[in-house]
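FIELD: query
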Amino acid sequence: MPAAPPRIQDSVRRLVSLGPSRVDHVPALRISLGLALPLTVLLLTGRIEWAMYVGFGAFTGIYSRYEPTALRFRRQSTAGVMLVVCVTLGASLAQLGEVLPPVAESWTTLMVSAVVAGLAATLVMVAGLKPGGAIFPLFAIAAIGAAPPAAPIWVALLVSASAAALCVGLGLLGHWAGERHPGAGTDPPRERWTRGQMVSEFARFAAVAAVAGAVGLASGLPYPYWAQIAAITLLTPPGRTLQVERGLQRVIGTVLGIGTTAFLLSFPAEPWQLVAWVVILQFLAEMYVLRNYAFALLFITPLALLMVQLGHPQPVGPMLAARVLETAIGAVVGIAGVVLVALWDRRATARASVPERV
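FIELD: result
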């Protein structure tokens, strides 16, 4: 019996309703604490310009929520190494950009980021990391690579590794705080992936990130990596309908999140105030990201922009406008990629169903 066609009502319902809650406050508190502690150290030592190194290292805590302690330790350790490598590569690209012409610097960062997106997505798939995809690795390498160097490469490595290690340590305490959900298995069997599946995963993330970044760069907007992030975001959900929905949710949520960001940046703020907002926004984002992605973007969008502002302050108006436009570019490229693959698969299926003529 053929599957029922997707209904617009279902998509609208998923957009405006919240999914079932778990003990969301426990991982949200753990993740935000993993960000708050190292940012506080940077404030006290007068090194807030290293905030992006801390932030991307602290994304380690986002992985492997609601999983058993031993499994979380292994998976968060894998995620932490991946993110630290991306931060270090980003810092290396930033140093390289000091000696390259601006155009060569932009294209180098764009293409390296696209390749890293493909590699990270493949690693995440093979290692069974959750959340899937390559948003955080791509964000880490591209944002740091696009900014002027804030410190030597070894400092970026050390700071991000320290934040990642802290988050892994906090993850060990999650079980005792009640984070392990009753439905979580003890140690699920690892899926087997063929070489063809791994090549396909790499190709679709790398290709979509490269095309979206190229279009964003050609548009003349200042942050083409935002287009890359928006484009690969919709590749994570299972099924093409949900992928297209994710792209639309990304645009709608980003527009709403820009309003939140504009309000927070509409008055002068000291670094400690921005840090406080970043931690609060991280907590709220983790409270809702699994329940309604578009709603969570009310907090994710200002969180990302305020983190960049801490490390590399930018004019607010142009930054907010660019965020919306490049998110739209990325969503269009990502949806186009999903549609093209669907048409290709349909055509291949049709060819396979036609009997060969003798």
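FIELD: remark
The chain has a mean pLDDT of 87.
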